[in-house]
Amino acid sequence: MFGRLTLDAFKHDWIEYLAGVSMIFGAIFFIALITHYKRWGWLWKEWITSVDHKKIGVMYIIFSAIMLVKGLVDAVMMRAQQAFAVGDSMGYLGAEHYQQIFTAHGVTMIFFVGMGVVFGIINLVLPLQIGARDVAFPFLNNLSFWLFASGGMFILVSLMIGVYAGTGWTAYPPLSGLKYNPGVGVDYWLWSVQISGAGSLLSGINFLVTILKMRCPGMTLMRMPIFVWATLATMVLVVFAFPILTATAAMLSTDRLLDTHIFTAEFGGNPMMYINLFWAWGHPEVYILVLPAFGIFSEVVPVFSHKRLFGYTSMVWAIAAISFLSFIVWLHHFFTMGAGANVNAFFGIMTMIIGIPTGVKVFNWIFTMFRGRVRFTTPMYWFLGFIVIFTIGGMAGILMSIPAVDFQVHNSLFLIAHFHFVIIGGVLFGFFAGYSYWFPKFTGFKLNERLGKYAFWCWMIGFLLAFLPLYLLGFMGATRRLNQYDIPEWQPLFIVAGIGAMILFAGLGFQILQLIVSILKRNENRDLTGDPWNGRNLEWSTTSPPPFYNFAFIPEVHGRDAFWAQKHQKTQPILRKYEDIHMPKNTAMGFVIGSLSFLFGFGLIWHMFWLAILSAIGMIAGVIAHLYQKHPDYHLPAAEVAKIESRKQSV
Amino acid sequence: MKKSVPVAHESYPDTHHDNYSRTTFGFWLYIMSDFILFGALFAAYIVLSKSTFGGPAAKTLFKLPYNFLQTCIFLVSALTAGLGGASAHRKDKNKTLLFFAATFLLGVIFIGMQFNEFHRFSSGGNGWDQSAFLSAYFTLVGTHSIHVLFGLLWIIVLLLPVWNETGISHVSVRRLTCLRMFWQFLNIIWMLIFSFVYLMGAK
Amino acid sequence: MIDSHHGWNASFKPQFIGFVISFMLIVAAYRIVVHYELTEGLLIATICILGFLQALAQLVFFLHLGLESKPHWGLITFLFTALVAIIVIGGSLWIMNNLNYNLMPKMEH
Questions:
Q1: Which among A286, A424, A640, C78 is most buried, taking Cβ atoms within 10 Å?
Q2: ipTM field
């Protein structure tokens, strides 16, 4: 009845108990808060069942923020271990535990922070920027979020019940196969990735249709904001790369559940095929993470330089080039696996080439600032930090694109430094810039600038201290994923890195403080105009926050930077009569199917097959019930629209 | 080159046309992603097709006339699905029900034949756990079968409202179009499986 | 209501044409492979060509590829899909072949 779930699964060491207990306390605190303020109805109606892209975007970001805390705690724990475990000292984390930490750290950061903030920001901003009222498939949007959350829950639950994978976030077989890892850890990995991956794929389809079919009148492709172009490219990558991961994870699942021999070391299997297919997905994935960040910078830099974005057309071509090239570089993740010189050379050259369009974009942003009236607000700080950090990381990447060099530094801390420089400098700093920039739009008040800058400096200095030493260590031969080093000369560098991690963690602390202070002081920092930064695109033409239907009248645009044009045109806008607005209804089905997906995965992980089968039937039944729904939408009467619009005008 | 300027009626508030165009395009994108999914499975199969671990190879196991018959049956079902979809667009309720029912029947026969083949392999000591070749074969063809099963369920789910409605609602037309696309996509995948797994393997 | 100029969505003829072409191609492929002794290269070429022709026929006549009004998003996304599939499958075969040659022991028992 309980499959292989026994009481043993609940036994852990003190650190894991601490983590589990703090999570449970967090959950209890949240439940108590909601109950005390009698907000269960509100939570259900306004958030859990909402199909409003703005609400869904906020939920993605909140979930990602929680996962970011967990991922950073993992990081600090690893750094603390490395700072002490040199020579004879073994540190405080055994190898088994350490392996789970770096695995969970990777999965958490890439899937549940990276993808979460990407989908969160796109959800918030995209429909507004194209003058639409929502995305193409609002129900699917809600479902995607709950699948994402369900995937994340596996990592959190694995802290308390069972163990997580110790294979690294890439879960290479044969180590991740049935023979060498028969326990639940890898299965937790598989289902967190597979279920959240399904959510990602659905979102990819959703946003792609939204951009291609729901732009407001007059918004041709070449008049879209660059953020929308970046989103378009990203969603193309999602739709075409994620199925590779789905297939590969499915094959690893059958290897583990059904004893197939696709990636095993015996019976004719080929583990190298996993590595090949994994990275055929994995490389587009890193561009899925970073392209939206590039898009965010293309929004932030022109506004705070008080100047139009330089080189719009070349930006579009650069995005297109990066997207295409990202499909033909994947072998650079395994130059050392043993392919011949021809194969390595081809992929090495392609990898070098992909640096060029990225460089074009960096220059375009810098040229945008040149001769502009630059305001150094927090978003611009994040941008400037990105320029420094991402460029260094990118250059390290180009260095490694030469197979001969890569043979020296593959799987060393040099590699770790490279990808942290580009992911944190690119994706995370990009998200932080977007967070600071768009925060007033969706909450109605600005974030505290001073604390924002303190946070930035902690992140900047902390990051450089935490990761610059890793380049040196990598060159000196330090291998990744080790919990102990026996070269005492390295310890000072590890200690510096450990200090850097603490400072970085303090940066997160400042951001939390900034949020709290800003909420407490919100009345002093209200955004009453809807346009606190003198923005250029359509999202700033709405109130802060926008009405749930976004636009009473679908805008009509005649060029780029549509809102800027609106603000500076001489003619008065024509007054029109309000019309009924057709909106989708809330639905519980996304939450239900998402929850069932968790039970499905849990059942398969613990071999409680009855649970898996029942959940699967439940999910299918849920979809059918949703299809048979009689009235999934409603009309908001024109009179209501008029009331809402007049209320905001009188503010 | 003419710029693709979207016309006012393409945005919210949506008309039935917009929903149709969005949904069918969205479903098309799902089909495109499924092509890639099968592509990865095909790649794995081709790489592993010779890894029989000493066991019997494709040449010994596959019975081409049987699979050829299967292919023809499935091809006819793609035709009936197409005719069903067209009938739905013509709002011809009886023809729609007839053609999709035929599709269902042929689909059931196809799946029956497929499971029969799986059973023949398994009970003959050639199950999916015997070699990489067999694992890859069962995974690739099995994934196709699972898709067909979902298609069969979907036919029932969609035909019931059509049976109960007077005429065919625009919602049903939209969904039947997606179903038709799905079924015909599965036919293309099967044809590729027949070509690259069975025909290629049996020689 | 439904876009009325999508005439091909309601026609039976393309479905029948597609069926007949596909049927002829599949019979041809079957008969060639079964009744003729082909070298491996010729076998692969025959199956590939007939297979892709049939896929094309089904894409056009069954799935109406390329028949939509401008902009041809369906066609464009399909072409990109085909490109990615060729890159992933072809690339994987090239890579794995290379790796297997360099690294795998001979598996003949």
A1: A424
A2: 0.95
